Amino acid sequence: MTTEQVILSAILTLTASILTxxxxxxxxxxxxxxxIIHQKRLELYLEVFEQVELLLKDWKxxxxxxxxxxxxxxxxxxxxxxxxxxxQEYKNYYEALRTSVNAYxxxxxxxxxxxxxxxxxxxxxxxxxxxxxxxEDYEEYANKIECYEKEQKKKxxxxxxxxxxxxxxxxxxxxSNLDKESTIL
Length: 185
Known about the structure:
- Keywords: Membrane, Transmembrane, Transmembrane helix.
- The chain crosses the membrane at residues 6-25.
- It is built from 6 helices and 2 strands, in the order ααααββαα.
- It has one domain (3-174).
- α1 (3-57) runs antiparallel to α6 and α2 runs antiparallel to α4.
- Helices cover 73% and strands 5% of the residues.
- The model has no long low-confidence stretch (mean pLDDT 87).
- By secondary structure, it is mainly alpha-helical.
C-alpha cells in the first residue's frame, strides 16, 4: 500500500466518522425535539380535553361566558403546538361555542326587562322613568330564557360531534388512536 492510499484511506475513514457523528447528532436532536413537542402536546391536549368534556357533563355550558373564555385561552397554544387537523377542529368548536355564547347574551339583553325602561321629559325638561319592570315582566323574561335554552338544547348533538372530532384529531396526533372504534360519547 502506498502512502497516498494510506492517506486516502485515513481521510475516507475520518470523513465517514464525521458524517456518521453529524447524522447521529442530527437524528438525536430531531428525536429529542419530537419528544419535547409530544410531551407539550400531551399536556395541552389533556387540559383541552378536560375542558371540552365539561360540556358533555353539563350542556348548559354552551351559554357560559366563563367557560368560553377558558376554551379561548387555549387558542394560541393550539395554534403553536397542535397539528393542522387538530387546530381546525378546535377552531370549529371554538366558533360554535362563541356563536352560542354571543347569541345567548344578545337574547338575554334584548329581552331583559331592566333594559326596557321608558323615560320621558317632565315639565322641567328632566328625563324621568315612567315605566319600571313588574314582577310579571321578570316572570315572562324567565320563561323566555327557559324556552330559548330548550330550543338551543337541540344543538347539543352538533356540539358533541365537534368535541368528538377534536378528540379524534388529538388522539391521532398523540398516536393513541389505535382503537378507532371507541368514542368518548
